[in-house]
Every structure is written in structure tokens, then in C-alpha cells.
């Protein structure tokens, strides 16, 4: 009998195989224990925008109300985030101008990433609140993740390793150069 058989666990078999990853529970438990960023002075997304050196802080474009930054921990090469300059945590707090510019910058990000990488798909979204999965719940940001057929595998789950085939600085250069074209 398999360990994931529903009968052994006191339930009905559902046809799913299970890949048990108990080491991930430490992340689940600890994510709710992180202290909130009480002010913009503590927020890493606020610090990035005010730091001055866009390359060092991975900012690829600055708009009027929002900026575009590479994710420091990308799911895939070219993983961008669209962030308002204001320190707000919820999409419902965004002004009309911030909301509209986030949409325009998301479209531009998709065009840039398609031109430089030939991606044929994207994951676009926002995680709202700690419970919703936001790593930095205090500062609104929208993810733009380019996707390719076969770009995901079990390496992150089994080996706690993510293979990213391009250095962040190289990605920054390519995205920044293309954005200004």
C-alpha cells in the first residue's frame, strides 16, 4: 500500500500522487512571524526606489506613479514587478493614476520581455496580504513572470534549488536597453 493512498490516511482515494515536502512547513510557519515593515524606511521596495542607482537596485524603468524592478528572487529570468512609489499595501488603496499606470507598465513589460526572450506566455498577478502569499505585503506590487514550455520542474521542491540561467545584472541590462528603444 502506498503512503499517499487515501484509505491509509482515513479518507477516500482521490487519484493524486503526493510529493511530501515537510521542510516547506518552516517557511509556512515563519512567513507569518516576520515583523511588519512599520514605515517606508524599513520597506525594501521603498528603499530601492529612493536609492539613486537604478542598476544596483535592479530598477529597469521609472514612470510617473510607478516603477518597474527585477525581482531579486526570480521565478524565471526577466521576472519583473510593477510597484507604485507610494507605500501602500492593497490594490484597493491605489489611486486611479497608479492603477492605470500599473496596467500600462504591465503591457510594456510584456512587450519588452517578448522582444528580448521570445516568451510565449506570462503569469501576471498580485498576492494581497500575508495570507494571500505576499512576501512584502506592505508595499503593493504586481508580478510579470515570463514563461516558456518546460520552464518548471521539481528541482525547487526536491533540491531546494532554482535554476536561473541568466545573471540578474545581465537581465537588467537587456531589459533596460530594450525598454528605452
Provide structural commentary:
The chain is α+β, with helices and mostly antiparallel strands and 181 residues long. The chain has a single domain (40-179), classed as HIT-like (HIT family, subunit A), CATH 3.30.428.10. It is built from five helices and five strands, in the order ααβββαββαα. Strands 1-2-3-5-4 form a five-stranded antiparallel sheet, with helices on both faces. Strand 1 (59-62) and strand 2 form a beta hairpin. Helix 3 (96-117) crosses helix 5. The model is unreliable at 1-6 (pLDDT under 50).
Q: Biggest sheet: strands, sense, closure?
A: 5 strands, antiparallel
Question: Which sequence of SSEs, written as H and E, runs from N to C?
Answer: HHEEEHEEHH
Shape estimate: globular
List segments where confidence is low: pLDDT < 50 over at least 5 consecutive residues. 1-6
The third-level CATH topology is: HIT family, subunit A
Helical/strand content category: alpha+beta
Taking the alpha carbons of the first and last residues, their distance comes to: 60 Å
Q: Tell me the number of strands.
A: 5
CATH C-level class: Alpha Beta
Write the layout of secondary structure elements.
Blueprint: H1 24-31, H2 44-50, E1 59-62, E2 66-70, E3 80-84, H3 96-117, E4 121-125, E5 142-147, H4 155-159, H5 168-179
